[in-house]
Please model this.
Amino acid sequence: MHRILQPEGWARPRGYANGVCASGRTIHVAGQIGWTPDQRLVPGGLVAQTKQALENIVAVLAVDGARPEHLVRLTWYVTDRAAYLAAGPEIGAVYREVIGRHFPAMSAVEVSALMENEAVVEIEATAIVPL
Model:
């Protein structure tokens, strides 16, 4: 169980939470990129890689019995801010398809490159599973 932290008088954020309070077993998921279990990047660019990275996060969580609704934090690293903003509706659609309508605390940062040459997005995750 978690609680969203929304300061009084602040506008409600779109697609993320300002803060999350939760207690339980913590799972930290290393940055996931848009590659398959055999480490091949999916074709199709930013939206396809985002979907695969989110699916990878869900797969890692499942190993310990966690689900997307246990996510309390996501940090997104993208190599092209303009492309990320332009693809917002499509990214939102694949996010809802994979994660659902659960919106943890999130940050997005533009970086000059990721470790895998063709990767354009990497997402780190933290989940807290109630005891």
